[in-house]
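Lab meeting, item 3. Inverse folding demo.
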């Protein structure tokens, strides 16, 4: 399989590169501002130049493209909605159209923030969307554009992505911040009024490539099977760091002033990916265990 990863230096993108290589696939990638340290063919590409994507397909000749690039700064999207619309709303449809014209399978990543957070049971893939901030609105436009441009695209929604960046080797995202504070003996304020199903980037990359091998199309939710608050996620990390839970401080989303509103509940129901692949998604504890074993 020839795999082209768009956004190969992102957290997810670097994991998709790594998992593709582990499977013996012929992997190439694009990057935006920083060239990742992978020994694969790489081309600089800006999502704002979608017209040039045809040349990139000719250069790398992939069977499948996985688009891991996006404007992921939720507050940045709120203050720069034009940019959010271009990168998250317009670009995915442009990439999908080029893939469709060249008979290349297209895989796109979306977000749990397409939901408004008013539910208290995990959102299924058929649940109504109603994004409440610019990031989610622009990502929803992107999802819809992809499915309009190509019949057999695979779209996967993630929630609260974290893991090891496979170019730098560093633990990235929320657990890195929690671990850092715990190790230096600092208090860790954590929300008790937000619920998410954290997506480990390495596990998501494995799952995406399995779905590609299954020739799956349509929409999937990829996350762990545990619906937790950041505080509960912090408790699991504290267990693994071997640190006292006394440093974990209960906090509220209202304590923090941010440009964009977050949904209080965005847990994803992962049943459709579990039945497609005939296996369970990991629990959060299993995901943390996997990462800690890899780091130590
Ligand atoms: N992070 C989360 O919690 C979360 C939650 C749900 C869904 N998702 C989705 O998961 C996917 C992967 O996210 P991630 O966590 O891996 O994010 P990430 O680490 O921030 O990676 C985003 C990538 O997009 C690239 N990018 C940004 N602007 C670009 C541009 N103008 N042209 C080309 N590339 C550009 C970035 O490159 P540069 O850094 O070089 O600009 C980076 O490689 C995204 O679709 C995101 O919306 C993320």
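The presenter then showed the designed sequence:
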């Amino acid at each position: 399989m020839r795999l082209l990863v768009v956004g190969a230096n992102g957290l997810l993108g670097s994991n998709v590169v790594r998992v593709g290589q582990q499977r013996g696939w012929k992997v190439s990638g694009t990057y935006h501002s920083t060239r990742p340290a992978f020994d694969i063919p790489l081309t600089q590409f800006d999502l704002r130049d979608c017209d040039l994507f045809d040349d990139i397909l000719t250069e790398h000749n992939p069977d499948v493209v996985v688009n891991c690039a996006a404007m992921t700064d939720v507050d940045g999207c709120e203050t720069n909605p034009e940019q959010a619309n271009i990168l998250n709303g317009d670009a995915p449809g442009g990439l999908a159209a080029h893939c469709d014209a060249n008979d290349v399978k297209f895989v796109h990543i979306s977000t749990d923030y397409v939901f408004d957070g008013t539910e208290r049971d995990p959102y299924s893939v058929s649940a109504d969307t109603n994004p409440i901030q610019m990031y989610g609105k622009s990502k929803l436009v992107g999802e819809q554009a992809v499915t309009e441009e190509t019949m057999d695209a695979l779209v996967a929604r993630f929630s609260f992505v974290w893991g090891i960046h496979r170019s730098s080797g560093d633990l990235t995202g929320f657990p890195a911040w929690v671990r850092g504070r715990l190790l230096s003996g600092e208090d860790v304020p954590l929300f008790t009024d937000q619920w998410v199903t954290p997506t480990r980037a390495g596990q998501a990359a494995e799952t995406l490539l399995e779905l590609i091998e299954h020739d799956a199309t349509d929409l999937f939710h990829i996350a762990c099977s545990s619906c937790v608050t950041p505080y509960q996620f912090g408790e699991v990390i504290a267990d693994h760091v071997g640190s006292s839970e006394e440093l974990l401080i209960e906090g509220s989303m209202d304590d923090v002033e941010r440009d964009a509103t977050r949904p209080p509940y965005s847990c994803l129901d992962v049943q459709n990916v579990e039945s497609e692949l005939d296996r369970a998604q990991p629990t959060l504890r299993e995901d943390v265990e996997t990462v800690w074993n890899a780091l130590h």
